[in-house]
Every structure is written in structure tokens, then in C-alpha cells.
Amino acid sequence: MHDLSFSYSGQPVLESVSFELKAGEFAVLLGPNGAGKTTLFSLITRLYDYRQGEIRVGGLDLHRHSVEAHARMGVVFQQPTLDMDLSVRQNLSYHGALHGMTPAEAKRRASQQLTRMEMQGSLNLRVRHLSGGQRRRVEIARGLLHEPRLLLLDEPTVGLDIASRRGLVEHVHRLCREQGVAVLWATHLIDEVYPEDRVIVLHRGQVCADGGIGDIMAQTSSDSIGDAFDRLTEGETR
Length: 238
Ligand SMILES: Nc1ncnc2c1ncn2[C@@H]1O[C@H](COP(=O)(O)OP(=O)(O)OP(=O)(O)O)[C@@H](O)[C@H]1O
Description:
Blueprint: E1 2-8, E2 11-17, E3 26-30, H1 37-44, E4 52-54, E5 56-57, E6 60-61, H2 66-71, E7 73-76, H3 88-98, H4 103-116, H5 132-144, E8 150-154, H6 162-179, E9 182-187, E10 198-203, E11 206-212, H7 213-219, H8 225-233
Parallel strand pairs: 3-9, 3-10, 7-8, 8-9
Antiparallel strand pairs: 1-2, 1-4, 5-6, 10-11
The structure holds adenosine-5'-triphosphate.
């Protein structure tokens, strides 16, 4: 994205945000509450429209090629969006149908993605009967069903216990390595950052740092990544 700005009723929330992700890159969009992470996701997914700046997915401009650009991205929203009374299979089949897959193709891909998420045994279970961590994994499997180039996750570990949180962070890092999909993971939790991740720090609607952990520590003359974020966000990340 390039020079993206957005306001709610005249109140600026994003100011000239620019960054680019490469295939297979895991980028953490790190910012305290209210930094503008969800707003940024809402613009990429076109829940809101933007007038200033440009967003491209796989080279396609989101305004001019909306349908094709959306076919190239998978999204896990902050609030769960699975149908609780349908089975995992039915939730995934419906998503597959929306992306033009035949039932057989959707079934094959669902079983492949669920196996990757170590959830193959849950295909016929109702979502209501799954734990919070399992539901999140199903949402990720659904987000990857149509083989997008970009996977967006907005604070996907909210409400999960520590073990489920760690498991999910590990799973998505592995998927990113194995499938070459670019991942944009929004969070305010420093401990979800892996040493090799790229970190884009968003503070009050602006990107105030972008790079590897080592670069960001050097830029801020900090001894630890926690210290660096405190300096960049004036202590709002904790
Ligand atoms: N629909 C809206 N109308 C007006 N202001 C909004 C709206 N949604 C968000 N905001 C404001 O925009 C700013 C950015 O909010 P946003 O939800 O994008 O931040 P965030 O980084 O995702 O925070 P969180 O971690 O709490 O989800 C906040 O000041 C918020 O109050």
C-alpha cells in the first residue's frame, strides 16, 4: 500500500501509511489499542472506502480490480465469523462455493487445510462444540481455502489461553514458511513476534518503524524489543 490515509468524520485515523509485503513474508502489524490496525484491515477488505492512497494485492489495484484482488486474499477478522450451528465442513464448503469451487474441490481443499491445522478430526463437528482455539484454526483454514497470496489476521489470539495462543502463532508461522503466503498479523502483544519477523509499528495512525527486530532496536537505541516498542509508542503497548 502506498500513502494511505483515512479519517472518520474528519478525524484522521491513518496518515500516509505505506508498506509492501513479499511472498512468504510474515509481517507483524504492531500497535497499541486505537493505533488504527482494524481500520487498516477494514480498508484492505473494503468494509470502508478510501479516497487517498493506493492498495494493491498481487499487483492488482483494489479500486479497479476489487473482485480479483479479493480472490487473492484471505481474512481472519477480530470477531469470529463462523456459523456456530453449521459443521466445520459446511462452513468451509460455503466459503468454497462463494469462491466458485465445486463441492468436491471444496471438500478436498477443506480436508487438506484442516490437516495442516491439525484439525482433520473435526470436519463433521458443529462449530459450537469446538474450543476458541479450534474455532480460530478453522477460520484460518477457511481463509486459506481459496489459496490466497495474502492472509490478513486481525488480533487472532484475542480471548485464547496462553497455550492456544502460542499454538496459533506457531501454526501460522509454519503455514507462511510452507505455503509461501504473505501474512499480515495485527496485534498489540510483543510476545507474538518471532525473531525473524518483519515488524511494522503503527502508532496513532502512522508507521513509526518498519523492519527486523534488530533494526528496530538499533533505530531506537534499545536493549530489548519491549523497550523499543515502549519508546516508539510512549509506553502504550503494555
Ligand atoms: N467506526 C468508527 N467511527 C469513528 N471512529 C472510529 C471508528 N472505528 C474506530 N474508530 C477510532 O479510530 C481509531 C483507530 O481504531 P482501530 O479500531 O482502527 O484501532 P486498533 O489499532 O485496531 O485498536 P484495537 O487494538 O483496540 O482494535 C480509534 O481512535 C477509534 O476510536
